[in-house]
Amino acid sequence: MKWRLFYAVLIGYLVFVAYRFYLESQPISAIEIRQNHLAQSEQLDVAVVWPEGEDKAGYVKAVRLVVEAINAERLGLCQSTEQEKLEPADNKACNTKVLRLLNYAEPIRRDAAVKQAKTIVRNPNMLAALGYYRSVAALPAAPVYEFEGVMMLSSGSTNAKLTDYDFNYIFRNVANDDTNAKVLAKHIHDEGYINAYVIYERDLYGTEFSNYFIEHASALGLRVPAQAFFEENHTNFGPLLSSLRSKISPINLTDEIALLQAKLQQAERMLEIARLSSSGDDASIIEFLAAEQKLKNGENKFFDSMPRTKLQQYLQTDLKQSSSTAYLESLFLKNQKELILLEKTEQYVELDQLNAELQMWIEKIKSIKDEDNSSVSARLINELHVTRKVIDLDADEVLLKFEQMQKRISKIKSGEVDVIFIAGFMPEVGVAIAQARDLDIKLPIFGGHPLIDIEDQCKTTADCADYGDIYALVTHDVNQYRRAYDAMKQGAEPQDVCFEGEENCLPARYACPNFETAYIKFREFAESYQQAYGTEPDNWAIQGYLAANIIQETLKIAYSLEPEVLADTLLYRANSEFADKGLMFSCHSHGITKGDILVEEMKIHKLEDL
Fold first, then answer.
1. Residue 49: pLDDT over 90
2. Runs of H (alpha helix) within 192-298
3. Which residues form the Receptor ligand binding region domain (predicted)?
């Protein structure tokens, strides 16, 4: 009986050991299963999920061109041994793996996007999925790729949530809606506009993008007097546009001049306090404080006997009060009471005087900025230091602030103070804009990257003249790259702002060591693209070029085909490595989260030939 029990226990133990051995010998996750297939297969697959249509075909064409080059040269497909990593050699042993490109039409429904992603990851040789123009497809597909260990690199999805979930395999190389809205709002504000009327498509993209825009516009001081939405497939925008037009009304000239005067008065007061704090003697500080005290509570002599440190404390208190919103509001109300008594022609005289005073400050700041600190007098050095203290900004920002105020004055005098912000996709936004022009709504229109499609569409259409002034955000502009490269070769100095039509100008974002390498590398691709397809690469073609190069360089950097190693390489080494290898056109990636790779600063592009 005891022997039977012993044998039963022994057999049970052996079965348990055998079962554990079996489990440990098998892949325990979908990622490990994929890893084994990628290591053994002679072919690696890359999926491109992108909308069909000639206006966006450049993306797929560019990816195909780069993949063909990779296969021709075996770039990025060599795996080094540990010894080769220590002693690099030119004759590394490369395996016979090649990349195969699989195209998929991007779905427009969430359930279809999930189903498609599951089909893609069912392929055990699938290395990465590129593309995804719309967030409505990218967001639901992302968890599928994450679970299966397939790298997803979106070049079109701008929803901020895509890379917000701490995923390891989800990336994008395009700025998100929050960043894009901030760029647009700042540009509209800096150009001097006062009111932004919002139209948006009530879907994932339109709602999120317009919400971010309103938030940033309000923070900058832009007004959003009215907003309206439309549904997908909407075609009759007449009622919506008529309602919006009825809310477009002339500005209150008195209030606008009063506010501009208040802002300049606040800046001047803060500059005076900063000057006294850094260079004023006791007598001048006492004179200033006594004058302030007299305005508040009548004449007071108690400052005369105070030590310097105590006088400085009073100045700092005054500086804090002067920088407050309450103080600005009090100046505004005071100016408003005075201006309201004037005739309209007299108010315009006040506006001209304000403009002249701003111009005086602008010239003064520029002259200080242009001085060589090694040769100027101590007074000028101190003045530069003080100027940089104004409203806690440096001289460049103060200059931009005053120039923005001048632009607002120019807009007020011309009456062109309103713009329309629109968030939506084609064809609806194109129909909305055309019908707005038919209703004689001629305001400039600003929007995100979907507006680029209007320009592409108009290239194949005989009559696009009625679209008027349209400005879209673009990630890449071939002509701007060319101009910046030419300016750099001519020795132009980097500038923060390059005005439209300014040829010999090098934008500061391109004044980095890797720009020349990046442009030359891109130019080689552009020539191949032109030869293959008979046209220049557009914005989406450049996104495709960069996306495919990201995969190529990641394979080279990682020395591995393991999904986890590739993802970790892209997460923690990519941007610095890409900069060194000349893939980044600008000096830095502007990605907010760890999944934002090779994200460049967005640019305002005026649609031409419309």
1. yes
2. 204-220, 238-246, 253-279, 282-297
3. 111-248
